[in-house]
Amino acid sequence: MNLIASTSTFSFFTLISRILGYVRDILIAIFLGTGLFADAFFVAFRLPNTFRRLFAEGAFNAAFVPSYTGELVQSKEQATNFAKNIFNLLFITLLILIFVAEMFMPQLIYLIAPGFYKDPEKLSLAISLSRITFPFLFFISLATFLSAILNSHNKFAAAAAAPIIFNIILIGSLLFSQLIDSSVASTLSYAVSIGGFIQLVILFFFVKKKFNPIPIIKIKIDEKIKFFFKKLIPSIFSSGVTQINILVGTIIASFHPGAVSYLYYADRVYHINLAIAGIGISTVMLPELSKLIKNNNIVEAVDLQNRSIEFCLFLSIPAALALLISSNEIINSLFGYGSFDINSINNTSLALTYFAYGVPAFAILKILSNLFFARNDTKTPFYLSVISVLINIIISVSLFNRFGFIIIPIATSISSWLNVLMHFYFIRKRNLHFFDTNFFYKLPRIILSVVVMGGILYLLLGFFSDKFNYNESWKFIYLFIIVTISLISYFLISNFTGAFKFKDIKLK
User: Fold this and answer.
1) Comparing C-alpha atoms, which of 348, 285, 397 is closest to residue 58?
2) Under a CB-based contact definition with an 8 Å cutoff, are residues 203 and 156 in contact?
């Protein structure tokens, strides 16, 4: 397996999905803006989507992939039996969870958006929409399980491509709501659950050759299953710490009108880099690292860790700088239409600026946690993540009245960087990793390339500054031109400085 090739496959389809996701969010911004309906929908979507991100991008993979690949090393039959038991338990647990959540949805909304209780209309709408969207969790969690099976067999394309269909369905629902003049928020909420179901069906057909996902009532809870769930519980928290921090932010932001929407749109923008630099690399890395550790190939494991961290920094550092320099232009070009007014642009871009400081930390945490997960250690990242979340809560709550909603992205970035430092401390203490000469050769060259790219981006923004007025109809095109030129220049500069060459990122 070649790391760059597999990551490129995963990232290509992820990028297409994210682009369609931006189209979706642009339409939401136009039709809903940042008012009552937008806040209610984003809470309704955030609820199951937070669980989706916890499962799809961290917890489940972190617990399942090392165990499943370990069984594959022993025999295919052992792996299949293990997967069947996990699937059956997951199926039953999710059914119970959905049923309970639907019954107690008012109480659940109170937990994640307590500020809505000041506005009965917004509260009622959020409860109603959440009951529509919550079944999405059932479908997408099962879809994630099937994705983990495929990833463990180094089949990344289908799992990465399936969300493309989901976003197409949501875009279609937005346009359809305009044609039939129905409630945008309601139509979109139904589309969320329908999209999750179709995503599950698609993955079902791709996974059949590796695993037959037919649930049965009979469940065998042996020591392997117990060990899996012992890992799963802490990994839910540790691998999804960024999303937990965002959820904490949503809870606090619910007391500020429009703040939930500002944070949602800002989160959407920086998440494209996290999807590629953090989630993409870590998803590809984890099954291979687990196999290397299982076979005691420590030299190759450390090499993979170094190349993964190196590649992550290569992608995340320039992204962070680009967001810092051009946050207002990005938000204006992507969302500055219709109901999304100038005030919404300014507040969202301010949130994005402070999220940008944490982008490298968000991404590299995905890589660093894998060093523990591949060794079946989910407790250490869990304890570190608990500390990180507590720091986030303390900063956000204590300073919210003074700084308003903007303290939320500040606290998220600070707590994430502290989490990175704590991870590095325990990695070094347990001798799980050391940086090789190739890493130290590349890092200063990456930084030099980023600085030059940042200068080019700054000059381009200045040259096109008059093209980013609120009423400028072609501003998105100008943003696309600037981003394209900046990306090409970064890769050319990186190649010239020796910061990055594709042949360097491979398993030997």
Assistant:
1) 285
2) no
Q: What is the DSSP string of 130-163?
A: HHHHTHHHHHHHHHHHHHHHHHHTT--HHHHHHH
Per-residue HEC secondary structure of 212-241 comes to CCCCCCCCCCCHHHHHHHHHHHHHHHHCCH
Residue with tokens 């009245």, as numbered in its chain:
401
pLDDT of 3 reads 60
Question: Both tokens of residue 153?
Answer: 């067999």
Residues 6+ apart with CB under 8 A from 387: 418, 419, 422
Residue 259, phi then psi, degrees to nearest 5: -65, -35
Q: Helices in 57-183 by DSSP H: which ranges? A: 59-74, 76-103, 105-112, 120-133, 135-152, 157-180
> What share of residues in the chain are helix, strand, coil (percent, to 5)?
85, 0, 15
Q: What are the b/e assignments for 412-428, b being 16+ CB within 10 Å?
A: bbbbbbbbbebbeebbe
* Tokens 């691998």, residue located: 239
Is pTM beyond 0.85 here?
no
Residue stretches of the chain with pLDDT short of 70: 1-9, 33-35, 50-62, 180-182, 215-220, 232-233, 235-247, 275, 278, 501-508
How many other C-beta atoms can be found within 10 angstroms of the C-beta atom of residue 404?
Answer: 15
Q: How far is CA 165 from CA 147, 194, 198, 201, in A?
A: 15, 11, 8, 11
pLDDT of residue 121: 84
- Three-class secondary structure of residue 193 per DSSP: helix
**189: CB partners within 8 A, 6+ apart:** 41, 44, 45, 129, 132, 133
What confidence score (pLDDT) does residue 507 get? 40
pLDDT value of residue 54: 61
Burial class (CB in 10 A: 0-12, 13-18, 19+), 120: exposed
Can you give the residue ranges of every domain in the chain?
3-504
The candidate with the shortest Cα–Cα distance to 99, out of 51, 138, 59, is: 138
How far is 130 from 125, CA to CA, in rounded Å? 8
Q: In the prediction, which pLDDT does 386 show?
A: 85
Question: Could you tell me if 200 and 142 are in contact, meaning their C-beta atoms sit under 8 angstroms apart?
Answer: yes
Q: CA angle 204-210-213, nearest 5°?
A: 40
Say if CB 416 and CB 363 are below 8 A apart: no
